[in-house]
């Protein structure tokens, strides 16, 4: 059900067709719900525009609600947190669409994996909007991850608010 919902939301959000990325010096701050298999939590990201279509940033997530393992144990702080550096290609003006939406594929390098993401932001005003993003690991640092090691090291869906600073 989660995968179906994610795909429908992504398809719908791609139909909005617009862009909110302004270019060099543009700063975006997102706060979102992080949803993945075995847990959900909060995600904070910050992107800074380096050029007309390029931005870099940092993203961190912390899982608040996590399923217990077979032994009834809960994960510790280190299992719940993830931090990544990221690179985005902001493509709204490449597709020559409205200025309210930012479509951005990108790569991220974190403490658990090297991955890719695809996101979209829709701004209602110059400073406030919504964001939706999916992420997937490309190369895991621990390919045979099991138990709590799988947290923050799998397909993830995020949805939340975006602020243009």
TrEMBL record:
Pfam families in UniProt: DUF6646
Signal peptide stretch: 1-20
The keyword Signal belongs to this UniProt entry's keyword annotation: yes
Keyword annotations from UniProtKB, A to Z: Signal
Name of the protein in its database record: Outer membrane protein beta-barrel domain-containing protein
